[in-house]
């Protein structure tokens, strides 16, 4: 088994024993908290996308579908880098993969500076893609690593607790977007309505300069995180290899073949794909829905609803964590999904501002979804030689965030913004069905 590195200087030691299955005998709190603090970093980046979609739609005169390409570029980076990240984890360590992710995240954030000067939509998409490559490293490593950071029986709860930090970052991202990117006064659309030619271009370029401000602060935080992770000792998170059996490391082709025949794993992947797509779509269009239902508010005012949404997401996670002490994760997931479907139907058929408050409720009902589906799907991998790659493939299911918002944008363009939420009804129904099937499995797998 690969042991935690003994060489080199570590200011913060591990202080926990690694077990045969890759888990620890107890949770090292400093390392676990430090790892959990990565979760708000990608939450911040993802929530800023919701701000960018609203801003780019007006400045670059985009349709709902075209503006959703912000999410496509972002999640495509996740999709393409997850497997390479898993291979690096397999050959080296979770810690190195995290440090690579932090470095790429810093580079991607830095590309926003030339992008704002070029003032082209495509250049911003390149910056988002590069940034997402770093986030893919972070998520591929941190999600699995969090579940391994202690006794196996608490793996799902441990990941759910780490995921609770996500909405804190998301709220921070929205607040930065609200006050650093969006201005006061009339909406961008109204301000630019009477502009033409050079005047419109100059106004748009000035507005794009505001996108730099949040990323300046993010870069500073990332550099501090790199230093702290470099000084901290982490476990390998890998199972012991029984040398008497001479069990070789699994090749990527062998792992893919193993997972392709794992029906429960495939069900989890599809469910995660639909869930992430739904989460991304709801958050992408909440601001647009508010402005569509109330023409008297601007982007800054409408973004307040996203702050409420992420606060609800945080509360939803806390409630789900509490409920999991009394019910199985699958039962909690089922309950949240049923109420989520009802809330989405309300958005579709009630055309006033109460529908926006229903999107906030939906965000709260997202609480247990990602972490529960992730952990349960990873648990279906009984041959632990495939754990790192399996975790990467689950992260690749985030690609749902690239496609479901496009589908909702298309429905919004051909019908109404309210009716476009039917796409999310279908997604939450898939999650509810998944939870129901998990409840029918033997108790140990819940």
TrEMBL record:
Residue intervals of the Major facilitator superfamily (MFS) profile domain: 31-443
Listed InterPro entries: Lfuc_symporter_FucP, MFS, MFS_dom, MFS_trans_sf, MFS_TsgA-like
GO cellular component: plasma membrane
One function term, GO molecular function aspect: fucose:proton symporter activity
Subcellular localization: Cell inner membrane
Highest rank taxon of the organism: Bacteria
Sequence intervals crossing the membrane: 29-48, 68-89, 96-113, 119-138, 159-182, 217-236, 273-291, 303-320, 332-349, 355-378, 390-411, 417-437
Chief location category: membrane
Topological relation to the membrane, as annotated: Multi-pass membrane protein
Keyword annotations from UniProtKB, A to Z: Cell membrane, Membrane, Transmembrane, Transmembrane helix, Transport
PANTHER family per record: L-FUCOSE-PROTON SYMPORTER
Record's protein name: Fucose transport protein
Lineage, top ranks: Bacteria, Bacillati, Bacillota, Bacilli, Lactobacillales
